[in-house]
């Protein structure tokens, strides 16, 4: 009988000896752990020093964008950004609050860091939609009804708001119920709903009560608008009425489903 082959003897030997022992994983030495810990501490300390102690990341310039009436110099002065301070330490919320407090013309402002040396101030100014005459000056009123600035020259293309609150019972009741601020906001709503072609010719928006708001146009024509409700319907009705009665001097769209015009 022939003996076993070399391959068979090798296979039997491998089966008898079993699988090779697993390699033991040595835990990291204490020295290695200490070196890594020191490296992390040094790295962190270096980062803190770079942010707060070095001259690499400090405020060197303040950029301003978005101004229309205000100048960049006015915005920078009111912002009072601490030039030379570490950029990371600048309180952007405080700068935003300071700008809104010092410059009421600013509606919104975004204060952001521009690494490595800048602070950016992106300003959105309030836009007047009405103005209130006060002596020889004019108070500008924005789309939210905020009276934000007093100017000596009337802004072009902005209607004058006249609060003609007579002592009549209806006007007094409106004033007691809504207050002057609410009546101003209702006037702003009307100004926003007036058709563009009519708005360009509107010189005065008169408020007698909550339900009695009227327009006076540049050529002397007048429009009874009523309340600020249903502004879209009233705008469409007014355009149709003016087209149908081009020679009329007075238009009434207080009830848009029953408009009227008169005069010639």
Hey, roughly how much beta strand do the residues contain? 25-35%
Number of helical elements? 7
The CATH architecture name of the largest domain reads: 3-Layer(aba) Sandwich
Proportion of residues in helical segments:
25-40%
Q: On the 0-100 scale, what is the average pLDDT?
A: 85
Total beta strands: 12
Taking all Cα atoms into account, the compactness measure Rg is 38 Å
- Please state the overall shape, judged from the principal axes of the Cα atoms: elongated
- By CATH reckoning, the class of the largest domain would read Alpha Beta
What's the helix-strand series? HHEHHEEEEEEHHEEEHEE
Structural class: alpha/beta
Instruction: Tell me the number of structural domains.
Output: 2
Structure commentary:
By secondary structure, the chain is an alpha/beta fold. The chain folds into 2 domains: 61-125, Ubiquitin-like (UB roll) (Roll); 130-262, Rossmann fold (3-Layer(aba) Sandwich), CATH 3.40.50.10960. The chain contains 7 helices and 12 strands. The strands form 3 sheets. Strands 7-8-9-10-11-12 form a 6-stranded mixed sheet. It has a 3-stranded mixed sheet with strand order 1-3-2. α7 links the parallel β10 and β11. The termini are far apart.
């Amino acid at each position: 009988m022939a003996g076993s082959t070399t391959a068979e003897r090798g296979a039997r030997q491998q089966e008898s000896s079993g699988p090779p022992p697993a390699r033991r994983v040595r835990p990291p030495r204490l020295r290695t752990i200490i070196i890594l810990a020191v490296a992390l501490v040094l790295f962190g300390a270096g980062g803190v020093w770079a942010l707060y102690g070095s001259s690499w990341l400090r405020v060197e310039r303040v950029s301003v964008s978005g101004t229309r009436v205000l100048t960049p110099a006015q915005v920078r002065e009111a912002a009072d950004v601490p030039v030379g301070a570490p950029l990371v330490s600048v309180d952007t919320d405080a700068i935003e609050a300071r700008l809104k407090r010092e410059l009421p013309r600013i509606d919104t402002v975004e204060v952001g860091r521009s690494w490595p040396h800048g602070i950016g101030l992106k300003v959105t100014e309030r836009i007047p939609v009405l103005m209130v005459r006060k002596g020889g000056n004019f108070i500008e009123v924005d789309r939210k009804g905020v009276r934000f600035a007093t100017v000596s020259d009337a802004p072009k293309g902005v209607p004058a708001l006249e609060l003609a609150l007579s002592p009549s019972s209806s006007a007094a009741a409106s004033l007691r119920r809504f207050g002057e601020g609410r009546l101003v906001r209702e006037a702003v709503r009307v100004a926003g709903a007036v058709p563009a072609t009519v708005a360009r010719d509107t010189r005065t928006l008169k408020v007698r009560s909550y339900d009695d708001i009227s327009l006076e146009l540049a050529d002397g024509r007048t429009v009874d608008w009523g309340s600020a409700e249903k502004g879209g319907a009233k705008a469409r009705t007014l355009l149709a009425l003016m087209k149908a009665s081009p020679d009329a001097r007075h238009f009434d769209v207080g009830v848009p489903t029953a408009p009227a015009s008169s005069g010639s």
